[in-house]
Amino acid sequence: MNFRKQHSIEPSPMQLAPLVDVLFLLVIFFAVTFQYAKEEQVMDVSVPAADEGKEKETRNVGEIIINIKKDGEILVNGQKFNTDELLVKLKNIVSLYKDQAVILRGDEGTPYQNVIRVLDTCQKAGIWNIAFATRKPDAADQPAATPK
Which residue from 5, 35, 140, 146 puts its CA 20 to 30 A from 99's CA? Predict the structure, then answer.
């Protein structure tokens, strides 16, 4: 008597549908993240260096980043504004969100008056939560050591 059954279990093939789904979701995630990062910072604005400057790891939801280029041009989300248009936009935002955060990214070559003009516009709109973007100094920014 042979009580053993000769059943061979065939190995199941690898399921590709879940793998494709996960890869597709990763592509969408990185595409959306890249788009927001690209809109957030204008690459032709070089912020000044500061010893205590650092990259901010986390961003608050709804932060407004105002870029001030060398020629005094004001950009918010890639759109150009003059001070009057910026004031109207900021007042509309402040009417909805009282504690609106603003980050000023002024180019290191822009005249100081352009930064003060935007800062004054923010104050007129009622924004009090203002930060200035800086970066860590690199070796070219470090002053030469003086011998003693």
Answer: 35
Are the C-beta atoms of residues 47 and 105 closer than 8 Å to each other? Answer: yes
How far apart, in whole angstroms, are the C-alpha atoms of residue 6 and residue 99? 74
Average pLDDT over the chain, rounded to whole?
80
Domains along the chain?
44-132 (3.30.420.270)
What backbone phi and psi angles, to 5 degrees, belong to 39?
-70, -30
pLDDT given for residue 54 in this prediction: 59
CA 82, 103, 95: angle at the middle one, nearest 5? Answer: 70
Q: State pTM to two decimals.
A: 0.62
Nearest Cα to Cα of residue 52 among 133, 123, 143: 133
- Cα-Cα end-to-end distance for the chain: 101
Q: Rounded CA gap, 25 and 52, in Å?
A: 38
